[in-house]
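Minutes, project check-in
Item: structure for the 283-residue chain
Input as provided by the requester:
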Amino acid sequence: MKKITNFSIGFIGLGLIGGSIAKSIRRIFPDTEIIGFDVDQNALSMALEDNTLTKTVTAIEAMSECDYIFLCAPVHYNIAYLPILKRIMKPSCILTDVGSVKSDIYRAIGDNQLEDYFIGGHPMAGSEKTGLDNSKRHLIENAYYVVTPTSKVSAEAVEDYVEFIGSLKALPLVLDYKQHDYITAAISHLPHLIAAGLVNLVKHNDSEEQYMKKVAAGGFKDITRIASSSPIMWEQICVTNHENISELLGKYIESMQEIKDSLDSVCGQDIYDLFEESRDYRN
């Protein structure tokens, strides 16, 4: 792995995930230079005050000597920055991202001829809360961190990056980016839609006294916690990964119809089998 001594890492965007990764690096490699760029000046000031950042910059061009650059802004911003990064990055720099969907950024990486420098990344950790003030230095610890290198980046660079992610106490898992997008559609994106749909089902079918809302307890709260996530972020995710989500949503609707049929026919065995299979698999 590249030696962390005199290492320089740039962060474009310091929200929940970017801030958490930066804090993790600072905790484990306290002498690393960490440079931050964000349109939110309050986030930059906060990151300087708590020593997450070594310094802030007002232009991406100032990251020309970075060894790693993390793209942690919304995808359309990350894509807009690529022509600048292509112009200023040193040859040994590795560019990475933290996005929940990879198809758009990979398309843009190809359009900008940056495949030799790009190793996508996605820590499978997060929160329904957003922003740097909700970031945590242990957020990615013991969490799978999916690594999606392009076919043109060197094997040595991938090995170094995987080792670096592992040194942050995360669990690196190398996957093809298309496989990643299908997986996240199933275990992240679809559950957000289901949670939002369930909350709205209660909202639109509750009584005037709102008894459903009043008595909703642990089970309902647990399954719908992620419905409190950012509508802006999840609109972007769902639109970007719509084909995979739609395919899996279709399969989910079919399974719900089968459950409805079992309920309508009062088929207790089918209902028992449903709960037994799901319990055993989850356990």
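Outcome recorded: The CA atoms of residues 135 and 206 lie 35 Å apart.
No further action items on this chain.
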